[in-house]
């Protein structure tokens, strides 16, 4: 799993790539926490555009990031989610606890 990030005006955008499964989830959560701790953003955007597969471990990644942002009194936004990860997130009811912006049409 590779990720790319950039910060502008206390908004941290993190583009996730590859598969989010139980093998990658711990590493992803550690990387996300490190980025959030470094930049202390008011808003964190997770961009799923290049995520090729996600299982329930992806839900743990989102919840972990949401909890970290809540401790900073910040917001989490998910965007550009391809159909397969979108189904996993919808099945978990993620849209009830954080904002989802536009699903990718792949």
UniProtKB/TrEMBL annotation:
Family the UniProt entry places it in: Belongs to the anti-sigma-factor antagonist family.
Q: CDD domains from the entry?
A: STAS_anti-anti-sigma_factors (cd07043)
Q: Highest taxon of the source?
A: Bacteria
Q: What is this protein called?
A: Anti-sigma factor antagonist
What organism is this sequence from? Faecousia intestinalis
> Ranges for the STAS domain?
1-106
